[in-house]
Each structure stands twice: as C-alpha cells, then as structure tokens.
Records
---
Amino acid sequence: VMTSTVNSQAAVSWSKRKRRLAAWVNALLLIAPFTIVYLLFFIYPAAKVVQLSFTNADISGIGEFVGTANYQRLLADPLFWRSLKNTGYFVLLTVVPCTALALLFALMVVRLDRLKGFVMAAFFLPYILPVSVVTLIWQWLLEPRFGVVNQLFGLRLAWFQDPVWAMPAVALVTIWWVVGFSMLLFIAGLQSIPNEYREAAAIDGATGLQIFLNITWPLLWPITTLVLTLQLIAQLKIFAQVYILTGGGPFNSTIVVLQYMYRTAFQQFNAGYASTISMVLFVIIMVASLLQFYMLRSRGVR
Amino acid sequence: MRRLKVLGVIGTLGTMLMAALWLFPLYWAVSTSLKREMNTLAVPPSWFPNPISFQGYAEVLRASALPRWYFNSVFTAVIITLAVLLLGVLCAYAISQIDFPGKTVLFWALLAGFMLPFDAMIVPLFMLINDLGQVNTFGGIILPQLVVPVVIVIFKQFFDQVPRELRDAAVIDGAGEFRILFSVYLPINWGITWALAIVTFIGAWNNFFWPFIVATSTEMMTIPVGITQVKEVYGIAYARTMAVAVLAGLPVALAYIAFQRKVTDAIMVTAGLKG
C-alpha cells in the first residue's frame, strides 16, 4: 500500500512537471519570433550606438577605439552646437504653441453636436498624411512668386530660404501637420470630466471662463503634461521637414541634430562621430521618456 | 440666456472658420492638381479649377516611377502590418496567459524599449542591415519596422481582461495554446486588432526616415521617399506636383475617413488613455 501511494504521488508530480515544461516550451515558441526581432533590430543597435560613439568607424563599421576623442570633438564643434540650438529653437516654436492650439481646438470640438465629427476630422486629417506630402503641399502654398499665401498678403518672401523666417515656417508646417493628434488626447480628457462638475458650477452662477479656469483646466492638467512630453519627444526628432524644406540652409541656419547626424554618417561616412552625435539625442529623449513614464505611472496608467 | 445663445452661435461660426482654414491647404492641393498646368500660375490665383483637367494625374502616372513606388508602399505596409500584429499577438498571449520564467523581465524590457529613440540608432542599424546584405531590398525596409512593442502592451491588456473560464474550458477540451489564441482570444478582441491594424498600416505607409536611409535606388523607394524626388524632376509644374501629393496621401486619408472611430480609438489606447 505504501509503495503504491508513493508511486502515484510521484506520477502526479511528474505529470505536473511535464505540463509545466510543456507550458514553458509553448511560451518560448510564442515569444521567440518577436523577441528575436526585438533583440536583433532594437536592443543590439541601441547598445552598438554607444560602442560606436567611442570609435572612428566608417559606415561599414570598420574602425578603432579612440576613447573619448569624439566627445571632445563634439564639445568643440560649432556646427554641433548650432544644430542643438536650432533643435531647441524648433522645439520652442512647436511644443507649447501646438499644445495650446490643440487645447483650443478640443474645446471648440467638444461643444458641437451635429458638426462634431466633421470638424474633428478637419483638424485631424493632416496628421494622417506622410510628412513628404505635407511638405509638398506647403512648398506650393508658400512658393515665393505664385504661392497663394504670398499672393494673398502681397508678399514676396521666400519663406524656406529666409534666414529669419525659415525655422518659423517649418514650425508652422509642423504644427498644421500634428496638432490633430494632441487635440484628440485633449478631447478624450475633456470627455472624461463628469458633466455634473460644470453643471453644478453653472448653477452656482460661475461664468464660462470661471468654470474653465477653476474646474476644467486643473482636471485637464495631467493630460496637458502628457501632451507636452509626447510633443517634446516627437519634435526633438525633427528631421524630414527641415531636410526637405530648407536642407538645413540658408548657410546651416536651420540644421538640426538628426540632420547633422545623417550628414556625418551617410554623406561623410563618419559613423563613429555620427554615433556620438546620436548619443546626445539618445540621452535627451531617454530623460524625457522617463519623465513621461513616471507621470503616467503617478496617474495610475500602466 | 439670449446673450449665451448669441455667444454660442459666434463660437460655432469661429470653429467652422478655423476648420475651413485648416482644411484649406488640402483643398488647395486637390484644386491645383485638377488645373491645367498653365492655370496654376495665374495672378491673382483662380480659386476653382476651370476647366477641370486630369492631365496632371495622367502624366505622373505615365511618366514617373509613381506606380512602382505605390507597389513598394502597398507591399511593405501590408507585410509590416500583418507581421507586427502576428508577432505582437503571439508574444502578448504568452505574457498574458502563460507562466514562464523570465516573463517579468521580458515585459519590463519591452516597456524600457519605449524610451529608446529608434531615430538615434539608425547608424548601427544600417550597418547591421548592410551586413545582412539587405540594403536597398524589401527585407531591409521591412525588418526594422517590425519592432512595435506598444502593440504587445495593448494586446496584453486586452487579453488580461478575457474571462479565465473561457481558457479553462478550452484547455479541458484539449485545445493547444495556438488554437486557444486564434479561436478564442483573438476573435473576442477583433475590435482592437482591427484598430491596431489600421494605425500600423498608416504608420508603415507614412514612415519616412528609415526607408529614406535604406532604399538607395529610385525603384526601391516607398511613396513618401520617392515623391521628394519629383520636385527636382518637374521643376515648377505644380499641377503635376500636387497630383503626386494627392495620390501619395489618398490611401491613408481614405483609410482614416473610412475607419475614423477605429483610428481615433487606437491612437488614444496607444497613448495610454483608454483600455
């Protein structure tokens, strides 16, 4: 009797172990395809860019360890500082204005009823287009001689070639393109505020402006910080609009970090130094993302 | 009360005006594309295409690489969409439903990946693709775009909410994990799957930076990359240039208009606001 109990116990634990092993094998098969792609095309390049930034590698990857030489060069490179400054200027011109405009559009949209879908689509539609379609359209709108904007205002301004106006023009194009995305987040935020709050305040005799400043705006603050950081991260990565519209010109007055990295890597084939330039963006964006992550977490969103 | 009503009407009018202003660049692109080439340069501008002409469209479709770029974009975007969803669904199901060692580590590694900017890793990525012999190939365009960890996080959240009893019943019936995933978990979540499919397709279609780096010859370019070339080709031929812009934007614009709700839902879920 004793032995048979032991045997059956052993059999139970054996079959349990077999089942668990089978589950592990299944799990491994399920996660393998993504994990391989993720490690190969994401984690590996992320680590590799750090290593490359300490080498003088060319674009085929051949080169030697040069210590911190690239970083010393970076600190003394006026074109790098200019590209960083321009990126900062572009961020300044886009992030806050775009967020403010998005909030305004969201407030405009939520109070409509029958026209709501149409108006929302009108503001959102540009965001759905490829960047190069957006730039083609605006190159035509802002064309110096025959462009509709200059004709309407009686100007002869070559917007994207003008040292003063090139960057604001690129910022304007960008805001037109992406404002719909932020608006959408604000609309979701506004709709999550219970109507009773505003109704109660209205009954107490609060004006529309008072209701906005004392109820809507504070409740909307978490969404606002989310929108601001998402915009910040997106606009730090500015490349295509500047590359297409101004080419970084006139005289490098609009060159941005990612574009300088591109030029260094793919036109001068200096992959080591280009990686060092990338590292700056890498670190700035990681810090901004961490900020966003903690803000999401503090709001209880996973 | 009367005053409020007047204010309301003014607000609505202002909103409509703003919406019209926002749509104007799109109207102007379509309108220009339907003009005869010589009418595009009228001073003052003519607000409507008169007569309507499809000459611009006919010419860009006949005498440019546009059809080829269209094919490249459709092909790569469809493959990317299918592969991203398949990889995402498989991985998310395992994380959500099966206990295995290293699960927490994997999930945190995915979340950490959100912080790494893809654009800053282009140089080593290009070297890797070069070593794999995939520069200027479909493989080279597609492979790095398969990494979309947010899809896994979203699917995991949705799979977590599927009632446990459904899985237990299927296990008792002797169904394997793949069967359970594709006949129970996925059908229940068709809504979010569709929404993610549409935004993944739009994202893949619109992607600029990576295809721009990896497609080195004209015939391998996707639409967004290829059309940056046509301006040099056409010079100041704006009917044709706008026809190119309209044709390049049309598939994603139609996808949005047809699936408006799904697109907005997916974007909100992705931003971590719903779901």
---
Amino acid sequence: MVRSAPYAEPTTVRATAPERRSNTRAYHAMVTRGKMAKRSVSLDKASSSPAQWRGVFIRVRQPDQCLPGAVHAALVSADAVLSTHFLKRYEPKDLNRLLQYARGIGCPAAAHYRRDFQRKLRGFGLEMQKETGDAKAFDQLKAVVASPSASFPIVAVDLRFIKAYDDTVEFHGDEMDMDHAVVVLAATDSAVEFYDPTADVAHLEEHGIHERLDTPTFLRWWGGNKFASWERTWLSHPRARQADERVGKGLMRNRALGDFTGKPRRTKG
Amino acid sequence: LSPDALVRFPQDADLENSIASFVRSSWASSFEVSAGRRVDDYERLFSVHAKQLDVIRDAVKGRVIYSRRRIPNVASLTARATPKGWLVYGPTRRDVLKDLGSRSSATVASSERTLLNVAYDRLINIHVVQMALSPIRNILVILDDYGQFEMKDLMRTGKPERQAKNYLTVLAHLGYLKEQDSLIVRGPRFPKGSSNRKPKEVYDSILAEVLDQDYHFLNQVLRLTQMIGYLRWSNAYYFTAFLADHKIRLPLADFDQKHQHYYPSSHRSLFERRGQMQRVLDSDVLVQRDHSVEGDPDITGKYFTAAKRAKVLSAAS
C-alpha cells in the first residue's frame, strides 16, 4: 500500500469548497436535502487540488452505491469545468433513480451510458463517453484527467482494490469478483489520486489513509478487473452529430415550417 | 423479438458470455451467470446468482469489514434456438429484484428466530414486553385460582375479541387450557402454581413452549409488536456481527443504519428510532459502550452456534 507516494499537488488554490469534511453524515444529509447539491462549485482542473475536489464530492452510505456516487462526482466536475447545470436540476436521489439503483444489488453495469440517461445528459449539453481497450489506456486516462473539456473519468476496478489503498479493510465471506467504481482525480507516471465514493472520511482521517496509489498498483487493479478491464467513462460536451441525426435535425426544421409529414416543402416553379 | 423473450443473440454467439453480459448490463453488475446446461440441441438453461455486500465498521479496532455473500439461483434463464437466433426467456429485472428482496427478508427473519431461541429469557425482562405478555399470565392466574372462567369475563378486560381469542388459541394449542361448553377450563398441560410463581418464570415457560411450537405465533397471532421491535433491534446487531464473523463493537449511527437496512420503513422518525434503540440498549440483550454497541458475550456465543447450525445465511437459497 502506498500512503505517501511522491506526488506533486498543484499549489494554487481557488476554491469555495472546504478542503476537508469530517462530519460526512451531516454533509450527506444536507446534500440529500438538496441544499448543497444546487450550490455552484467554483473549482477548475488546472488549479484545484484533488483534496479540494474531494471536499465538494459526496460520500455514499451503501457499499453498492459506488456508481451513483462516482457519477455524481463526475457530474460535479463536469458542471464546474464545462459550465453546465445538470446538478441544479437533479439531486443525488434522482441519480439513484436515473441509474436504476436497487438497494442491496446496485446498478446495471451500463447504467451510466444507457440511452435514457444519455438523453437527460444531452438536455444539459453533456454526454457520457466510454472507452475500453488497453492500448494507450493510461495515456488516454491522463489526457481526460487533464482535459479542460471533460469531467474527471470514472474507472471500473475490482472491489478488492479498496484493500490496496486501505490495509485496515478485511474481506469476509464468499470469495468472488465484484465491481467497484472510483473517480480518477490526478494521474501521473508515478502515482494516481482518486476518489472512492464509498470511503468513510472519518475512517480515512483516523488512520491517515490517502486515496492514492502508485501507478503500477493502480494499473494492476484497473486492468485486472474481470468484467470491465481498462474501462473509463467521462462526461464532455456531445460529440459532432452523426449523419442520421443531421437528417433528423432537417426534419425538425421542416416541421417547424409547418409541414408535419416531414417532407421538404415544395417550392413553386 | 418474441414478445416474451428478454433478448435475442445471433446463432453463432458465445451464449454464456452474451447472457452474462446482458444480465450485468441490464439487471445489475452484482449478478453472475453460471455455465449453461444443455437440455437438447435447441435449448440451454442458465442460472443467475446474486452477490451481496455488507460493510461493517468495528469501533474496537477501527477496522472495516466487507462481508460478501452469494445468493444462488435467483433466476433461471432459458435460451431457445430459432431460425432468427437464440431467444432468451426468463423473469424480468423487476421480478428478480422482488424475489431477491423477499429472500433477503427470509434470511433476516431466520436470524430473528434463531436469536429469539437463545435470547428470549433476556427479552422478557424488558418491562414493555412484560406488559405485552401480561394478558396471557392473567389468564393462567385466573385458571390457577378459580379453575375456570367464562369467555364473557375475558371480553370485559377491554381487549379486542380477536386478540383475546388469539391468546386462548395459543394457550389451548399448548395444552394449557381447553374450552368446555361455554367455559374455559384448565388443559392437560396446565402449569400449576401460576399465581405463586414470579411473572418471569411463567413467561419463560410459556415462551419456551411457544418457541418450540411456532415462532409465527408471536409475530402473527399474538401480535406482540413491542417484543418484535426489541427483537428486531437486537437482531440488527447480532446478524451484523454474524456477517462479520465475530463479536464487533458497532457505532450507534451504524447500528441505526443497519436496523433501517434490514427493516426499512419510512414511518419511523429519528426520535422514535432513537427511543426504541435506547430501550434495547438499557436491557440486558445488548451492551452500550460509549457511542457504540456490543453484544452480550453469552448471547453472542449461543447465537453464533445456533445460526451456523440453522444455516441462517442459506435461508435465502
């Protein structure tokens, strides 16, 4: 386990969010009541440290709620860096519903890029992008982390990843592979800083544990995920529209002109 | 796609991987699919299993325990070969989640029964529980003193008729009383000396008998909701400790959260929950240590042994 890997954090601070939150339950309660979820976050990727970002993300209560927690964090960062307002409309509990979260079971693996959810995102000028494949996966991950036009990326790891950064954790019961989602906040060739939505802040602080791993260890867990190795998803503005969608746009323009059959209006002569 | 089919795959698809991928991406990532069983050239059967996770914090050593368990055969999927490819039939996600919910409840209820068997003598020490059981004792005391009574006398106590009859049914079932003409008289197994014995002794013998007969008497027939409340709070601790596989010291906030997780209800306010929790902590069933709760060593040992013997975690299978 690496607790103090040599990692240079940006020193410039421009944030309104507190750096640490020891009372996560009260914070969670405030967020779920929607008092803080609608607050705008004035952080940016270039000048804000991972610790500052963690201060504005929320921690989830259920261990199987990692995906809604990670998607919420990605949305917080997307709203901040892309100037969108998705979380002014949707609260964390809405995300549970949108991502089909079921208590004790979790979410479908593809919940965050399902068509319905993508449609909601597009309404706010966002789109969930997904990449798989190991060729240059880490380089792409670093690019997404640093990109001013993308949220922080969500990566899929095995649940036992938690043991890699927190050695106080014990696993009991049936041996099995289980999914886990974390958000990568900083990535260099030497270390990766991330945000685990299920982690208990008080526990981390009490034991001096940092959400950080040396890069080889992180890559071992990321690539070793049985179900979704090297998978990374992030939010950005929608890509250029496909050709068939452009046709659809033309159709809408014709409808706006009054022809509800969708056919172009005939012109005289 | 046939209206009943969940999904269709091409004829040359790797069926097992395709179904596993479908289940993970459209049901939940915590489901896994076992190797298919070939029925004939045109049909394959697949079992779906669920993986559940509990996180338990132990205040003593400041450690976090991830308890994982597999719930086997939560759904069965049938793949049939058609000219258009493999059509997969089975329950919907909603059906599976509903079934899984009832299985989880069955596991928790099985743990409750096990705990009641080892801790009932402590539970009946709780004043509210004694109050709830007092009508039963009153019936036994009257029979001990007078040998018989009329049904209408029992009705005068103000208890609803149905509830009064439930008490009689339970006691008659145990052989403590019987109905003779219009009178209620002592049964062949009537515990003599009920009026001289301490209430606890009387309740002990009754509850021991009831538990031997059927736990549902308590819950369904007697509707001893007060006792059920205490039992559930106690079970929220002991079941969690069982999942962690040792006696833990659970922070009070986590204790409340576990209780809500096993017995979800939107009706209980924070004040109600905290009040009920405190009454359980004041009893001998659980021990309060600062801002955390610990199991009674005697009950913990007995419960762990009984739960392993009763295969509590297999109740969902």
---
Amino acid sequence: MNVKIKGLFASLPLIVMFSGMSFSVSAGSNTIVVENAWIREAPPGAGALAGYAKINNTSVKDVYLQGADSVSFGMSMLHMTQEDEQHKMSMHHMASLKIPAKSSVQLQPGGTHIMLMRPARQLKAGDEVVIMLNFSDGITAPTRFTVIRK
Amino acid sequence: VKPGINAAVVGGIAVLAFGIGIWFGLQREEAAQSKVIVQDSVITVLPGPKNLKEFSLQDTNGKPFTLSSLANRYSILFFGYTSCPDVCPTTMMVLAQLYKSLELKDSARDIQVVFVSVDPGRDDAKKLKKYVEYFNKSFIGVTGQPEQIAALAGQLGAAYEVHTSGKSTDYAVDHTGLLFVVNPDAAFAAILSPPHDAERIGSRMDLLKKLEKR
C-alpha cells in the first residue's frame, strides 16, 4: 500500500486532504471526494463484507471507478446487487462505474458496493481500514472506511 | 460439489419457478373473484394459508428442524448464505432491529426468525450458529442436504441458485430477497418484499395477526 501511495505522489500532481469522514484527491482538473465510507461489521468468521460510500466528482469531466484493493482483504471487487422482478438477488462484477461530471454516486446496501473477501483480521465496529479506490486517468484514492454495526 | 447436487438445485429451481407461476396465477384468479387480498409494497397475504408438507432440516445444535418446528408461533424465514456480503447482512440487521423492538414489547415469543442456509457446502452448523447468533441469540439457523433445503424452499417458492465453480470456495449464490411468513398452524401465510424495514415489517405482522384473528 505504501509503495502505491509513493508511486502515486511521484506520478501525479496531487493534493490529498483528510477532512473528518470525507477524503478527497485532486489531480489537475479532476477532483473526487469520497464521503461516509463505511463497512458493515460482519458476524464472527464471515468471509465476505461490503463497503459503501458516497463518491462525488466535483470536476467537469466524467470519471470511472474501476476497482479497489486493500491489504486488509484477500480480494476487493466492485460489485452490483441486482434484483429481478421475482426479487431474486444476484451479484455481478462491475468493470467500471461512471461518476458523471459535477455529480455523485452512492454505493449502498442492496446496490453497488465494494465486495471485500477474506478479511485479514476480524473487524469490529469502530475499526478503520484503508481501501484504495482506483479511478480512470490513473487516479487512486486511498480511502479510510469505518466499520459500523448497523 | 457432486453433479447430483447441482441437478437437485436446478430441479429445485424448476419446481420453484413453477410454484411461483401457480401462485401468481392464483392471486389473479382471487382478484377476479373480488375476494379480499391484502397486498402492499411490504406484505402480500396469501388468499388462504397454504399448509406445508413435512420437511427435514437440522438446526445449528444438530437437532431436527421439521414442520412441527414451525408450529405455535409465527415464523419469518429468510434464505441466504453466510458468505453473502450485501443482501444477507442487510436483511438480517433489519430482522435484528425488528426482534429487538419485539423484545421491548415482550412479544418476541410470538415470532421466530429462521435463517435457512442454501449453501451447505460452506455453511456448517458451527459457522451458521455464530452467524445467526450475532444478529440475535434467539435466531435459528438451519440447513441440510441440498434436496432437503429444496424441499422446504420449493413449497414457499424461495428461488436460489448456487454457482459453484470447480473446487474454488469463492462463488456466488443467487437467492430471493423475499421473507416468507409461516403462521402458527405451520401454514405459509404471507410474503414480505424488499427493501425491508423493521418498523414496516412489525406493523404488517400485527396486521397479519389481526387478519388471522390471533
């Protein structure tokens, strides 16, 4: 993770800001602000969790969330839960999620989420983990997700 | 996973699809006869409770969970799997909220929450016990052989599909987001539709009790 952050700083003119629950990363005219990033606390031994957040694109250019990775999980993937007319739920991998210019997209329960498989340790409410959100144009936003029981 | 198991699951789904078709057909027929059907975005009360046939599952203490386990109180059944990252924990948290409010009203004994794992390949009794008890100590986790699970799911129209791939333990399971309500006579009485909300479910359960004059 550290290597990646260093690489990012070296390759892009970035302004990185932490502000309470939100986190923003700017590169040129692209600015992504991630708010209320949270992971639902999972029952003991559960091998799969989900991360949710509101992703704001304050720039005038569309950006695409293309994936995620984190040392805290064996696998992190952008997924979407789809519900058919009979209420059958299925999960699908998303190669890319568009965050339109001057707009925001909510990752939320029952919808688009970051599927987090095989946690490195049991996560408890109040814990924080960093997940790298990988966007188009080579932007990587290291985002702090808070574990919440709700 | 044995080919036979896949066949059983596929067979189960076929039966379920057929069951759902019949059920929607019945609903329309009943509507045409202007009988009272209670249905809103949260609950669909079946035109008449449907008696369930015997089935044989096991709870997380290794005890049989059969038709008689559904008698004498309302049961809310959810079909899911513990490796489910989004829908299952979201639904179970709603049921945990519902149950907490019932406990505060001292009416928790009227309703039992049953989580049926449709993924016996990964969900053994120990894992399932930890999982359901995390949400509420009173919640019941049950599972069994694929054909045993299909025998109950088929009667309720609970569709699911296990996407196993070789020996990998990372696989997804499609499953219904509906909750199934069985009444104290162990008869299938109603369906609760997602997105679920504890307060709304609580009010509809009260309504169902009134409708059934209990």
---
Amino acid sequence: MTARRIGDWLTAKVGEELVMMSAEHGKFLGLNEVGTRVWELIEAPCEVADLCRTLEREFEVTPEVCRAEVEAFLNELVENGAAALNLP
Amino acid sequence: LGAYSYRIAGLSVSSVVVLPGIANFADDNRPVDVTIHQGAVEGTLSATDVSSPFWQIDREQILFRIPNIARFQLRAGNEITFEAENGTPIEDVAPFLAGSAFGALLHQRGLVVLHASAVRVADKAVLFCGPSGAGKSTIAAVLAKRSYPLVADDFCAIDLGAVPMVQPDARQLKLWSVAIERLGLGANCGAPVYRRADKYFVEPNEASDEPLPIGAVYVLWETHPPPTSCVEPLKPVDAVALLIQNAYRPQMTSGMDQRAQYFKAAAAIANAAQIFRLTRPQNLADLPDIVSRLECHWAAIGLTARVA
C-alpha cells in the first residue's frame, strides 16, 4: 500500500505544529511533530511499510503501535482530502 | 494635491474629500504616501489576472465598483481615483474610500488588514478581533480611557516584514450611544456614523502614532448565558483559522493568491505573538471585570501592565 499527498494544501510551521489550509476544502489541519514527519515522507508516493520503518528508527515506538497509529493518521488525512492510499 | 490630510494605516494621506471618522493629521515633514482624487475611471483592464463583476485586478492596478455609488481605481499602492455613479454625492462615496478602497490599496502594498481594534500596552500592540458587534471598539475605548493609547479601531493594518508591525491608524472609535453613555465618553462624541442609527464617532482618550510589534491577540467570543469571562490560549491551527476569519477582505480576496497571502500572514502573526480566546458576556456590565482580567493576563505573559 502506498500513501501520497493530494489537494491544494498550504502549510506553515507555527510553534511546534504544522498548520495546513485547503482553500478547496475550506479546512484547516494541525499536525504534531510525528504527523509533520509523515507529511514530509509522503511528498512523493511512499510505501506505508517503508514509512513505518523510517518512523520506528526516528521515534521510540514499537512496530505494532507505529503501524496502527500511522494507519489511523493516514485515514484521517484521507478523510480530510489531504492524502490518498493506493493498494498494490 | 488634496485639501485634507490623514494618517491611515501608518501612511500619510492627502484627499480631495473629507474622510468621515478619521482625525485630521497634518505632518509637514512627511512626504505624502497616498493621494485620493476624483477623476474618470475606465471600465476595463487589458491583461486581467482576477476578474469578478465588480473587481478587476492586474499587476499595475485594481479597479472595482460599488454599484450606484462609485467606481474606484487604485494604482501602485499610492493613488486612489474615484468616479461617482448616478450623481451620488461625494459624502456618500467617502466611507468607501476609507474602507474598501483603502483596504484594497493596502493589499497592493503587501500589507494585510484584520478586523481588529488595538491598543498600546508597554511597547507592544494588543489586538482584539471578532465580528461586528463582538465588542472590539468598546473594549478599546475602555482601555484608551485607562491610559492605554488607541492604535487602531476595527481596521488594523499589519506590515509583515521580519517582525509583523501594527500600523497606527487615526480612525476614531465607532461606538453605540449606550456604550458612549456607559463609558462616560459623551464629551468625546462626534458625528453619527454614516447611515448607522445610534452609532457615533468617538475621539479616543489617548492615541499612539508609531508602528508597534504585536504583544498578544485576543479573539472575542461570546458566551450564552454568560457565567464569567475567561482567557485561554488557542492551538496554532485554531489561531491561524480565526485570524484568517477575521481578515478584512474585500470580495477580491477569494482569489487563490490572496488566500495564500493571508495564510502566510496568519502563520507569521501566530509565530510572532500569542493568540488567545477571550470569552465574555455580551453586555457592558462586565467591562471593569474584563479590564482587570486583561491586566492580570498581561502581567502573566510578560507585558508590563501599565504604561507610565
């Protein structure tokens, strides 16, 4: 499964958060440090398995927790029109 | 050159018409930044980037029309030309010159404008924003009376630069007669606001005339029913969304490029200053409480509470 960004999102770092705005969707999102890293990593289409491996190296997290949280986060981005998931 | 001199959004303005609710401000040592004059306004632009029935924008100029009032042409951020429509008297055009036309001109100059009133606390500007009727002007009037000089009322222009700076504006406060009476500002009361029943221009007790960095922004929030007022910090995402919601945007800013500009501006403001939600009951009885709450809050966030 690969994840990639979609939509017209503008981003700006405000304090510790990455604030995102979509004029098309009329929506704002705020990403924490890990969310911001995921957003960076899916700039180009990225295998979710590779994404999780990178995050496991960079943050203190077990593979199971990482996978579950990444999937939940990606689904949130999908629901907000910020990312798309492609099954192989 | 025009016969009337004003300070609007930190700029020195020369106008052929009286601008209602703005104190005359002549500074002989300062060159004129913006001139406002009457003349013919052509209907179309050659290369139009953004277009709607009433707005035309390209790199050199902005044209817009308030139907049955006037057409306006803004050039290079330093010249406003207007042509009244259908014999509309000049005094009916004037409010649009100081409002929509000047807002668009500031856009040309790369400034953003918030629907906010601001006072000076120590060496910073403290902003109050919110929709019409939220109490921006009333709170600013109370604070000006308590020796916090007024920086801007309702029309708060911000020059982004390296540090966002609030530009001083010589606009008078616009207050309802009930607020004027409650605050004991009858002696400062001037002419009624154009076609606004029961609302008057009021001279602030003290005013500040220098650009200031932003100390804090309070987004006004009404409670129903009101228990007490409170101040809470906003998360960055909510701060940015609310700042954009409070942007003074003529219709033209629905264009993509302006939205991006306002997003960048809101992020810059949220990085430069803390943004808070100020929840308060919608009545005048709470004003003494609001003032003491704000002064405590300024001490807590490191803004000196009282200007000497």
